[in-house]
Amino acid sequence: MNQQLREQILTIVARVPKGRVTSYGRIAKMTDGASARMVGAALRSLPDGHGLPWQRVVDASGRIADHSGADRQRRLLREEGVLLDSRGRVPVDYFWP
């Protein structure tokens, strides 16, 4: 992935409002050619202490991806007021834009 595309992805992630989420695919559609997988790769490569709200990115169905930070992601979202439904997914009402 080129640096310009990576910067587009990270700029969009930075704009996701507190208490809202978006999907990898929605972010990809806002760029000049990224795929949902590229969005995930860009987020996985963030250095420690980066400060971007990575926790606000979920899959299209509202599911939190199965990764080592999933419990932390759930906790951070809960702290922002994002509640998961009975299936463990973020309800569509929380999606941005």
From TrEMBL:
PANTHER family: 6-O-METHYLGUANINE DNA METHYLTRANSFERASE, ALKYLTRANSFERASE-LIKE PROTEIN 1. Residues 5-82 form the Methylated-DNA-[protein]-cysteine S-methyltransferase DNA binding domain. This is Cysteine methyltransferase. GO terms for molecular function: methyltransferase activity. It comes from the Bacteria. Keywords: DNA damage, Methyltransferase, Transferase. It holds the Pfam family DNA_binding_1. InterPro entries: ATL_DNA_repair, MethylDNA_cys_MeTrfase_DNA-bd, MethylDNA_cys_MeTrfase_DNAb, WH-like_DNA-bd_sf. It comes from Halotalea alkalilenta. One of its GO terms (biological process) is DNA repair.
